[in-house]
């Protein structure tokens, strides 16, 4: 009888040890999963702040949380027969504002990624080199020394990109401005703000690693 009692009593510490190990294991697993979820969330935040343009081999940082819209890249011919790539950009906020103002009518700020004549806020043109970009000035006054960021040119990888610098304003007839697609004062303010953020974003162009 005494031996049976001693045997039963000895099982209790073993059960306690096993239970402790199980509890610690569960706590450790929960901590690992929590850290994993945190890292995933951080990575998603980083990813959404980068807009990639794989067809041109570049990406840029998205400023101000704007939702960027991009057209398909299109090959254009220069006056002297060279080929360059052009891409148009707008933002979802501007498209939504145009739709709100137009009501049931045609949205003047609508963006069609397949149409190079679509309404856009900004564009980039890709050249094969600085010398190639300088040739765009048919007057011959632009030299490779002028192909720099101060003049809107960004070197990314093996190409040189010209970022347009035409902010919207009421009278779009005189360069370097473009006419508002919005019609209200609040729309104009939003359009200017979206252009500033998009333009600042495009100036961070860099080659995709």
Would you kindly provide a written description of the structure presented here, covering whatever features stand out?
It is a single chain. This protein is α+β, with helices and mostly antiparallel strands and 209 residues long. The protein has two domains: 1-48; 50-207, no CATH class. Helix content is 39%, strand content 22%. It is built from four helices and eleven strands. Strands 3, 4, 5, 6, 7 and 8 form a six-stranded antiparallel beta sheet that branches. β4 (74-77) and β5 form a beta hairpin. α2 (92-102) packs antiparallel against α4. The protein is elongated. It starts with a helix and ends with a strand. Residues 1-5 and 40-47 have low confidence and may be disordered.
Sum this structure up briefly:
The protein is α+β, with helices and mostly antiparallel strands. It has helices at 2-48, 92-102, 130-134, 185-202; strands at residues 50-53, 58-61, 68-70, 74-77, 83-91, 122-127, 153-156, 159-163, 168-169, 178-179, 206-207. The longest helix has 47 residues, at 2-48.
